[in-house]
Specification:
alpha+beta; folate biosynthesis; 2-amino-4-hydroxy-6-hydroxymethyldihydropteridine pyrophosphokinase; transferase; six-stranded antiparallel beta sheet; ATP-binding; two-stranded antiparallel sheet
């Protein structure tokens, strides 16, 4: 399979949030047939769903990968497990790390386990804003650039850009 550009949203709201994000970037970059080619700034955002928890740190990672989407999803789940996220968890609950495939090239995929593009990405500033730091791809279902989706996004939250940055090619402490 030839390389595809994919975007993965990452978030954490437990413990050393920046270290968990960096750990996810490092593990993605060390994944066979995959390399990290871009990382957005880190943003602090309000939690979705249950507001009675710590704020999230969110970012988006751009990768080049020859993995198929199903295998990439499995890799993301393994990384989550390695970074302390349990296999079973309540929706909207606090988490050490969350990895979501946002886009996989221009493909649209709907299976029982995988929805690409991510079904809620166009409604969430904590995904759109960091994605725009590194790219402005066209949403393959809505056929609109991501920058246009930000203008029509109904999310009234305000992602706060942090001075802290993630790096590519670093070995994280986690």
């Amino acid at each position: 399979m030839e390389n595809v550009t994919a975007y993965i949203g990452i978030g954490s709201n437990v413990g050393d949030r920046l270290a968990y994000l960096q750990g996810a970037v490092d593990r993605l970059d060390r994944t066979e047939l995959t390399s990290v080619t871009g990382v957005s700034r880190v943003y602090m955002t309000e939690p979705f769903g249950d507001p009675d928890q710590e704020r999230y740190f969110n970012a988006v990672v751009e990768i080049e990968t020859a993995l198929d989407p199903t295998t990439l999803r499995l890799v993301c789940k393994v990384i989550e497990r390695e970074l302390g996220r349990p296999d079973e968890y309540q929706r909207w609950s606090p988490r050490t790390i969350d990895l979501d495939i946002l886009l996989y090239g221009e493909r649209c995929i709907e299976t029982e386990l995988l929805s690409i593009p991510h079904v809620e990405m166009h409604r969430r500033k904590f995904v759109i804003v960091p994605l725009l730091d590194i790219a402005n791809p066209e949403h393959p279902r809505l056929h609109r650039p991501i920058a246009d989706l930000l203008k029509s996004c109904g999310d009234d939250s305000v992602p706060i850009r942090l001075a802290k940055q993630l790096t590519i090619g670093r070995v994280s402490p986690i």
